Amino acid sequence: MTPLTRPARLAAGARVAVVAPSGPVPEERLSAGLDLLRGWDLDPVVGPHVLDRHPGFDYLAGTDADRAADFQAAWCDPAVDAVLCARGGYGVQRMVDLLDWDAMRAAGPKVFVGFSDITALHEAFATRAGLVTLHGPMTAAVDFLKNARAQEHLRATLFEPETVRTITPAGTSTLVPGRARGVLLGGCLCLLAAELGGRHARPSARGGLLCLEDVGEETYRLDRYLTQLLRAGWLDGVSGILLGSWAECAPYHEVRELLADRLAGLGVPVVEEFGFGHGEGALTIPFGVSAELDAATGTLTLDEPALV
After folding, report:
1. Which of 171, 140, 135, 133 is nearest to 153 (CA)?
2. Residue 239 catalytic?
3. Distance CA 119, CA 269 (A)
4. pTM for the full model?
């Protein structure tokens, strides 16, 4: 696994497009998020269908075609420097194959930010465009609107990425000790399992530092996803594992027991409670950047800044 192409960092006045590739977006939260971006001296523009609702399925932000059209137009607009997701939910897997990846590659590298359901787009950008992407807070998400740590770590990554090359969240602990090097990848566990066999799925996490988190899942479901990845050989050769938040899942001691049961046998360093994902104050993790993990100290050191 080799490092991917890093987009350019943002500067004051940069135009950023906000899109909704997944679930419906509350208008008041979108408005608050746009105000935060303007406070960073960014120029946010909103896709025409961001506030849409699908006529038949209320868990989707508009039709698949309209969500894809918004995304495509934003990415291919030469005036846009970054594409930010308004929220997650569900829906990316319904629209990602409608995107013209040849045209998007031709448009050149840009900053892309999102997490949760957006995991499927992170995977597509890695396999189809070879781009570094940012697993981080979304514009209309409560954590971004309310939490200063989430805001500041994303802002620093976007504007001053050299200041956040070392990530050492408070409260981490070691599940399996050791050091490991690899290229960062991953996201929401259930989405990674759902991507197996898909058009944009990578063959394995071999050589990577795999980031895993999830939200609102029963323990047996987490077991199923991890077991599926293990049985498919997708975790063969992984270099190390970083575990983020497991918000609204079972009590953490139960989740932790499962994670140890399924992952410790891989024989690679594993660090837990690393502060990314659906938890409070989520940190921004650059996927596609080579890094070193020290599981004993809970430290992730990027070989180079997330953005150039």
Report:
1. 135
2. no
3. 23
4. 0.96
